[in-house]
Amino acid sequence: MNRILLLLVPDKRATLLAGVLSAVAFMLGLLDMLTRDFDSARFHLNLSIGIMALLFLIKFVSLQAAYSIAEHAQDNLRRRIREARQAPPPTLLTDKQEQAQAQAQELANMAELAGELKQALNSIPADSPVRPKYEATLALMQRFSSRAHAHPS
Question: Positive or negative, the Cα torsion across 67, 72, 73, 79?
Answer without folding.
Answer: positive
